[in-house]
């Protein structure tokens, strides 16, 4: 499967080694080694952030930026640790949903959903590239040496420029990969949810072509069994990452909204408003993209349930025990079908249309409350 091979190679760019069908022992050991290197590096960054709180307070940088930095670091370390426990489920899940999609979709339409993953991956590099450009700009000023000594590993004790440059490059390389990794998982979730949604919608279109009760029943139970199996695989592989990503995105959105609404002038004067405003926009975009893609699965399942209801209601009602039994089974199973394929975040929340409306209302209400408090 060409698309899965491309996804595996794509994740190499953020230090994530997904498993393959014929994975060797060396590859498994290398994957664990790389994962633990990034976990320890993130733990070091968290310790550095705690140390730099005192420096940031002296420079009068808003405390919300410090909290958002902690949120980002804890999100990264949590995603990496969860990935280590769910690693073996990701590629089999991709193989299962892609195989099911290929059986239903035409060859000309199979690659159209890949643009979702490509678009999210490209967007994931916006913030790290902006921060890199901002850091290079700071290094070119008089405060450059001070920034290096306070913010980089062992820079206070190194005098050789070659070693210093090498450490800066290594740390920046790992930082870029670490900041981009959540975006890659967001793209993977969107890709998987979009594929599962297309499977359900294509199955619905095929089901509409069945006019006889026996063929309708046979196709419905066969295809829904495969769809539920795919949904369980997606849930098992991605629900934990989804819960961490959503908690981080929601926390970051509320933190940044509080800062911009309560202390906008101070943020603008600090020079940090542009990258944080851009990442706030990306966080909102990622949050609603994930929510819509996941909730569309539930919406598509509801449409299939409605199709079964309409088919059964249009049937004649002869005194045929077998026909009545089949119709009863179809109605009962279709009624439970949407709940079987709905996506969740580690069981903490269910992703449907109500979830989007509730979170949107909470964000708007929170912003209105902060504005009213600021006016008083």
TrEMBL record:
Domain of life, per lineage: Eukaryota
Keyword vocabulary terms for this entry: Membrane, Transmembrane, Transmembrane helix
Transmembrane domains' residue ranges: 36-56, 63-83, 114-136, 181-200, 242-261, 273-295
Keyword Transmembrane applies: yes
Protein name: Gustatory receptor
Taxonomic source organism: Oedothorax gibbosus
The organism's taxonomic lineage, starting at the top: Eukaryota, Metazoa, Ecdysozoa, Arthropoda, Chelicerata
